[in-house]
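Anyone? Bumping this.
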Amino acid sequence: MELKINGKTVSIEADPEMPLLWALRDTAGLTGTKFGCGIALCGACTVLIDGEPTRSCSIALEDVAGDVTTIEALEGDDGALHLVQEAWIEHQVAQCGYCQSGQVLSAVALLASNPAPNDADIDEAMSGNLCRCGTYSRIRAAIHTAAKKIAGT
Amino acid sequence: MGKLLRRTFLWGSAAIAGGVAVGFYMYHTPYSNPLVADESKGEGVFNPFVKIAADGSVTIIVPRAEMGQGVVTTLAALVAEELDIELSDVKTEFAPAANVYYNRGMLEEGAPFQAFDNSFMAELTRDIQGVVAKFLAMQATGGSSSTIDAFNRMRMAGAAARAMLIGAAADKWQVAAASLKTENGRVIDAALGRSLAYGELVGEAVKQEIPEEITLKQPADWRYLGKSQPRLDMRAKVTGKAGFGIDVRLPEMLFATVRMNPNQGAKMTAFDAAEAEKVPGVIKVINLDTGFAVVANNTWVAFKAADLVKPEWAPSSYPATTDAIFEKLDAGLKAGGGFNMRDDGDAPAAIAAASGKVISARYSAPYLAHATMEPMNATAQWKDGRLTVWSGNQAPTSIVTQAASVFGLSRDDVSVHSTYLGGGFGRRFETDFSMLAARVAKEMDGKPVQVTWSREEDMRHDMYRPGAICEASAVVDAQGVPSVAFRAASQSPIASVFGRIAGAITPPGNDRTIVDGMWDQPYALTNYRVTGIPVYMDIPVGFWRSVGHSHNPFFHECFMDEIAHSSSQDPLEMRLQLMQPYPAAVGVMQAVKEMSQWATPLSAEGVKSRGRGVAFCLSFGTWVAQVVQVADTDDGIRIEKVWCAADFGIALDPKNLEAQMMSGIIFGLSAAIGQEITFNDGAAEQGNFDSYDCMRMNQAPKIEVRVLRASGKMGGAGEPGTPPSLPALGNAIFAATGKRIRQLPLSKDVSFA
């Protein structure tokens, strides 16, 4: 079947019931999206489908109806980073880093729908993304910084 | 001579000038340098930690696992500081499995002395543990020991390489080495206004003799150390490019999963794989004796097919239910005996003879899973009788040892490539996931196989933080000084971990981790007894972030709180009083007192009540005090704020240390507010985050950290943030609600907002 992933049409030969996560990781070679729990509880596998944050471990290939954006697409071909990624670096957010692809994409989606989130908005949008290293304080600070950066552009 | 030494252990002859201890590195048999093979690729290999290419690019070898604690950056900074290069330009590689990368600091930490015991005997034993570490040659990451171990060794590696580069320039220019200096990757002859880039000198520099004596920079001259550095791995980790074990991709690689008997260690007595074998994409189902593997063309097919296999499991050799397990711990406690890890004065006699009120309490803590974000996985390949393993792991040489033993290989026939770790917390100190990949790959005709565990497999096949119980009693004298006795019973993590490493002998003596966090605390009490009671069961237990310090401080520091309240003392002031002989402890307590405005009463505006709790723990050489503030609300207890003061002695990277404290606190609070592994039918009942959740963004408190540098001795960072967080929360809940909770998780008694 054909999927639109990061702006390109990709042909995937797999069981239509296979979750998108495994098509990305094991078939399309996009390993930036992570496996964490398999039941949409940890957010490590978060991708955007038509801009909506989606747990790719729990959506079957046959149900993917829109354009898929993974962490790999946030970095431009010229190496330019998304403003959310820049804010993440500024605040030195990542520790082990395993959950951060999902965290960054959830934050990108939040800021696209709400350019100036308050702490309660951040709690609501980000509580589906677990981080065992406990980087939450810096994630929160980085989202506020990213909001300011985006507003300034 | 230089050549020979570079092939061997750098410090066979080198010594540090300028007051740093020399004897540490003076062992006679050198370990070989595994990087020498890289010379054929045109890289100048200066020692096991530094390679410089002809284009001047510097590669620093990181001998420890990067599991989030920032060790890649801090260890690279140690080398860059002395080598005099731009830190942001360096490349890093994880070290291969090799004895030369052994961790001395970790075993030193395990010596049976309190961190504040600087007696001759304590120092001597720490030295001997260091020698033992070298001979065991464990290249391991644990015990918050990476920077402590690397502090001299990796600075020396950078300084030695720099001296060799200067030596090469001096020969070339026919001037005295002492007349030359370096600046950012160049050797400079200021007198004649000329310079050479390191890259231009590599060919000659590697032929220089390794200096006999090395002078390290004074801290006042440090450019990187002591200052916050941007993490070298940050960009890779926000762009999805950091390679974890699960991201290893090799030509013709197959994907697999395993399902092992949830009655851990017991056999699979029968299995029916017929349905699984019919699933398109399944390549092979393998009987692993205590479980099975499904090999397929992708991980999901392997998972799906594994669900269709019908195994029969033999029962566990340990008690099958949580109640039966804790009854065994109880029986151990009742039987008496055990070992007194601390026995100052005569606490039992003082308590028995007391005319005042005796307070006593019973505390408990559950079994806990590590629940790293990245589930266990590893990739392995067999080729020409050799085994190669790729995995995110904390102990590469243990994998070599284990594989050599199990498969009858020579150590040279096992290679281990270490990746980034999606969390470790002690779980990846184990070799099981790497060994299972090796066993599966052995059946697959030379093809590489990646074996990924489901989350449920990961949680049900952990080496858990052992459950524990503790009885405490105390009496307080007229001056407010308590006589205290603690008796704690649990399984022995040391015996369990070492029992799993082939050929390893469990270190002799008592397992101090059973009482760590109680016997090793800087309270000056006349009568102070801490007794550990090991209870032997086959449940695999292991090292869980801060190990014994993860639960014993909950017992110790909550009971200290009970003592304070029962004798009408302020819990923080009482600690300050009892810790007077230990300035580092007093320092961190004073700091959190000020940071939290401890003496200012809290308003209960908008909530039912508010309260603050304090706790202290010295662990892994770092002195940490924390105050937690909670509010009792209609939705339950809300953790509003945590203040943390930590004295690291030498603080190499303050911003990273802040991150480590925050991380340790969230890890501890996650356990406190709800984590518990329970057993039924011999299996862990929790399998995923629905039944074993972790603290999330909406529950995470604001955290303020102060980094102190006064203790005089470098402490670790990865673990010491965790221990005080649980008791400080318990004490805060008491302050807010009057409810004294003596069992973890606290969610058994209160709900959390």
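Late reply, but here is one note on the structure posted above: Chain B has three domains: 2-103+139-224, 245-316+376-452, 336-368+464-748.
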